Amino acid sequence: MDALKFVCKWAGGITGVKQSVKIGGLQLEGCTFDGSQLTSNQPNSPSVSSVPGCTVAWVPKDMGDPYNPSECISLPVYFSAEREKIVTKLTLPCSGNQEIWIQTGAALFLKSV
Known about the structure:
Layout: E1 4-9, E2 21-23, E3 27-29, E4 32-33, E5 38-39, E6 48-50, E7 54-60, E8 72-78, E9 86-93, H1 98-103, E10 107-109
């Protein structure tokens, strides 16, 4: 395990891995995600929205990341909207200004709100 890292990709699969898992049904609060980039909620946007499925896998640490680290943010995935139990973190591409998404309280949830 010390030689591996957990990665996430939102479009397509993760190349060079033997096993990967597709995760779907996640909910996002604090912003909107279309599968390619985070965007700010509009005044008429729902506070919680569904996100497209992603592929996750454990890969060797020396393998390149699917996204440029300066253009993505690692958001927590909570069991429910109460934000009491964190399950993991997933990386989502953004415009490069991670502070904006931290200020919005962006987070993912397994259970519907």
